[in-house]
């Protein structure tokens, strides 16, 4: 009939989730043939499940089994967060680490005298560090180095994070215009670049804890 924007709803059956997922798989297999009329996005409706926990499980199964769009009723964080996380990870290139944008972040209401910390742009590392800073209610700056999505230890070993690149990141972020001091706290696992970074940048490089959970205590004892 000339209509090309079509989505297929094969039906969601809360009482028989196996049948629902089987339909999804069969439609996707059929769509592999060139002349298939089922080569369209699939709609799943986990909202048909009245139990919120079962709705979350149904949604995750549908995402794993090729659903392109889901209609979700649950708005509680325990339900929404894992589904969003699953979706982001399923549709991620496994050849590239999950990364965040490099640059300077602020936490709380930092002043020009507040601590300046540093980390890499590997998503898991960044969010762990950010969570530890936020949970301790610190007012601080966080400089995120571009390490091509690698964690601290791997990036230092592989050369994605060295003194030269760290120094360039400090210059690019114009940190000297943001703070009154010239102190930066680098991760404990990047201690090997501290001496050379001090020489190149002229900043005092403080080696922080190896685990970001130790940041609050480090700041309390070492930051003046």
Mean pLDDT: 92
Q: What's the number of extended β-strand segments?
A: 7
The Cα radius of gyration reads 24 Å
Give me the secondary-structure category. alpha/beta
Distance between the termini: 74 Å
Largest beta sheet: strand ordering: 3-5-4
Portion in strands? 5-15%
Main beta sheet strand tally, sense and closure: 3 strands, mixed
Compact description:
The chain contains eight helices and seven strands; from the N terminus they run H-E-H-E-H-E-E-H-E-H-H-E-H-E-H.
What's the arrangement of secondary structure elements?
Elements: H1 17-30, E1 43-44, H2 52-64, E2 69-70, H3 77-90, E3 103-107, E4 116-120, H4 123-135, E5 140-145, H5 152-158, H6 163-172, E6 183-186, H7 194-201, E7 204-207, H8 215-222
Parallel strand pairs: 1-2, 4-5, 6-7
Antiparallel strand pairs: 3-5
Helix pairs in contact: 2-3, 6-7
Structure commentary:
This protein has 224 residues and is an alpha/beta fold. It has 2 domains: 14-90, no CATH class; 103-222, Rossmann fold (3-Layer(aba) Sandwich). Helix content is 39%, strand content 12%. It is built from 8 helices and 7 strands; from the N terminus they run H-E-H-E-H-E-E-H-E-H-H-E-H-E-H. It has helices at residues 17-30, 52-64, 77-90, 123-135, 152-158, 163-172, 194-201, 215-222; strands at residues 43-44, 69-70, 103-107, 116-120, 140-145, 183-186, 204-207. The strands form 3 sheets. Strands 3-5-4 form a 3-stranded mixed beta sheet, sandwiched between helices. It has a two-stranded parallel sheet with strand order 1-2. The protein has a two-stranded parallel ribbon with strand order 6-7. Helix 7 links the parallel strand 6 (183-186) and strand 7 (204-207).
